[in-house]
Design a protein that fits this description.
Strand order of the largest sheet: 2-1-3-6-7
CATH superfamily: Flavodoxin domain
Mean pLDDT: 97
Radius of gyration: 17 Å
Number of strands: 7
Helix content: 25-40%
Bound molecules: flavin mononucleotide
Order of helices and strands: EHEHHEHEEEHEH
């Protein structure tokens, strides 16, 4: 059985086109008998960025080797999944800050990555594939200004996940083509990928 972790950062909820893309993928993927999907809805989680006390608590726990502290539950959950699926819209040339806060909580030495004696770091996550599903207002596919896809691809490498793919519905707010046409193409690519992901 393949265990997949679905990370939902579609902040606009039922109005989100990214959520429509993701749910289409998940419906096809979840229909597979060899796949079990666990959902994590970031909007429902008590995620906070590192502030003074929250930062120092982490340093102290790491120093004491207390990796079973509840604050590290996101890192353990991420580390143990066979597949990672992230859905988030394109916001401000990247993705919503909530996803960055979640990633900040994932990067825990001894859980999702480790370092050797010469200071080199390497990922220790179990997953072999990571998928990013997104929708964008403008035409950013392949653009150096798409910092979201670039950054998540780099994070996959950092976590030791060898395969990173993304599917985007691009240019949804440009008015050049009906939204349903663009979204429909992305959905059909996502449904096709679900058979082999
Ligand atoms: C806060 C915010 C920031 C956005 N920033 C960008 C941007 O930098 N570039 C862009 O092309 N579209 C931007 N958009 C448009 C969204 O990428 C686009 O509407 C997307 O489909 C929204 O996804 P959703 O329907 O899943 O919420 C932004 C939208 C919002 C609400």
């Amino acid at each position: 059985m393949t265990s997949a972790l679905y990370i939902d950062c579609c902040i606009r909820g039922e109005q989100s086109r990214t959520k429509r893309l993701a749910e289409s993928f998940l419906a096809a993927y979840g229909a597979r008998e060899d796949v079990k999907i666990e959902r994590l809805t970031l909007m429902d989680e008590p995620l906070i960025p590192f502030t003074n006390g929250f930062f120092w608590q982490r340093e102290q726990l790491l120093e004491q080797g207390e990796l079973d502290h509840p604050r590290f539950r996101y890192a353990h959950q991420y580390q143990q999944a066979d597949r990672i699926i992230i859905a988030a819209p394109f916001w401000d040339l990247s993705f919503p800050a909530l996803l960055k806060v979640y990633i900040e909580n994932l990067c825990v030495q001894g859980i999702t990555f480790d370092c050797n004696e010469t200071g080199g770091c390497f990922g220790v996550c179990r997953a072999t594939k990571m998928l990013f599903l997104t929708t964008r207002g403008g035409a950013l596919e392949g653009s150096p200004m798409d910092n979201g896809t670039k950054y998540l691809g780099d994070m996959a490498k950092f976590f030791g996940i060898p395969s990173f793919e993304h599917i985007a519905a691009d240019g949804l707010d440009m008015g050049l083509e009906p939204v349903e046409d663009i979204l429909g193409r992305a959905i059909s690519r996502a449904e096709t990928l679900a058979a082999t992901f």
